[in-house]
Design goal:
- The protein is an alpha+beta fold.
- It has 2 domains: 87 residues, no CATH class; 45 residues, no CATH class.
- Helices cover 30% and strands 19% of the residues.
- A hairpin with a 2-residue loop joins strand 5 and strand 6.
- The chain is globular and about 65 Å long.
- The relative contact order is 0.14.
- About 3% of the residues have low confidence.
Length: 145
């Protein structure tokens, strides 16, 4: 039984919307690249991976999905906790406007937008106390003057 906390329910559509970032934030692997678009696809693509469990994804148009059904109250109450897999956390309340992910992504790049190794990120933290967006704002202001 999959437990999906804080999913988006829109009563007028047949699907529940799930943000892949919510899964990733809960340490769930999301391989959302369709196999047909990969050079070397394997069964471990276009799926959600939770430990040894692989949930295969299908496509409807350009939307990846997997079919689900809501359990009855009896099914839910009779299932053991060992048979429940939590895909998304229940707290804190999800904030889709958080800057946390953007800051973490910026920390991975140098001022040219290129990937920095873990070693260079640690070193750069002592020499560049500014984020990429702060540096770019500064350069833009200088160029406009």
């Amino acid at each position: 039984m999959l437990i999906i906390n804080q999913a988006i329910l829109i009563p007028d559509i047949e699907a529940n919307l799930l943000c892949p970032m919510q899964l990733r934030d809960n340490d769930i692997k999301v391989k959302d690249e369709p196999k047909s678009m990969l050079e070397h696809p394997t069964e471990w693509y276009h799926c959600i991976i939770v430990g040894d469990l692989k949930i295969a994804l299908s496509l409807k148009g350009v939307v990846s999905y997997f079919p689900v059904s809501k359990p009855t109250k009896e099914e839910y109450e009779s299932s053991s906790h060992e048979n429940r897999i939590v895909l998304t956390y229940d707290s804190p309340v999800r904030d889709p406007h958080t800057t946390r992910f953007g800051k973490a992504e910026e920390a991975m790049l140098d001022y040219h937008g290129k990937y920095r190794s873990r070693k260079s990120r640690k070193q750069a933290r002592y020499f560049l106390p500014f984020t990429l967006s702060q540096v770019m704002t500064c350069f833009t202001a200088i160029l406009e003057n």
